Amino acid sequence: MVGTNSKITKKLDNEICSIFKGWKNEGQVFNVFISHCTFDAFLANKLAIIFLIEKGVPYSLFNIIQDYTPLDENDWTKILDLSTKSIQRYKQLEKHFGRLQSEKIIEMAEVTNIGLDVFGNIDKFKLWLSTPNFALGKLKPIELLKDSYGKEMVIGELTRINYGILA
């Protein structure tokens, strides 16, 4: 997580560890993960991601991911296909998000992680997300994050930028 606020990074690490330690009795699959528990390790562990999506992302983790990503409240309502009021209800009731919303939340964390590796800081990444991109059909990358196909296109473009392959 190059260039991120270390307080947010620490909060992400602590939150993901507490979530998985709470589920320790679910099976032996995550014992190795729990012993080296960081948010980066979580994002690299597809089984852990699937498990969390199945259980649902708790609002407490979503709240920290909101601070980690360059997305504002309006972006989140579009990506999650939820109203601001609905998101506030998740907060008030300390609910877990459903599978679809949980998957989107984790996807945005993954995109942010890659974007930070490529650009080095959140401000440069945010500028790139909001600038029309020729390689992405002159759309702003942020406009493509609503579905998994668009997310894959954005990740593909970030990967090409990282390797110096420009359209």
Automatic annotation (TrEMBL):
<protein>
    <recommendedName>
        <fullName>Antitoxin</fullName>
    </recommendedName>
</protein>
<dbReference type="InterPro" id="IPR024467">
    <property type="entry name" value="Xre/MbcA/ParS-like_toxin-bd"/>
</dbReference>
<dbReference type="Pfam" id="PF09722">
    <property type="entry name" value="Xre_MbcA_ParS_C"/>
</dbReference>
<dbReference type="Pfam" id="PF20432">
    <property type="entry name" value="Xre-like-HTH"/>
</dbReference>
<feature type="domain" description="Antitoxin Xre-like helix-turn-helix">
    <location>
        <begin position="52"/>
        <end position="109"/>
    </location>
</feature>
<dbReference type="GO" id="GO:0003677">
    <property type="term" value="F:DNA binding"/>
</dbReference>
<dbReference type="InterPro" id="IPR046847">
    <property type="entry name" value="Xre-like_HTH"/>
</dbReference>
<dbReference type="InterPro" id="IPR011979">
    <property type="entry name" value="Antitox_Xre"/>
</dbReference>
<feature type="domain" description="Antitoxin Xre/MbcA/ParS-like toxin-binding">
    <location>
        <begin position="117"/>
        <end position="164"/>
    </location>
</feature>
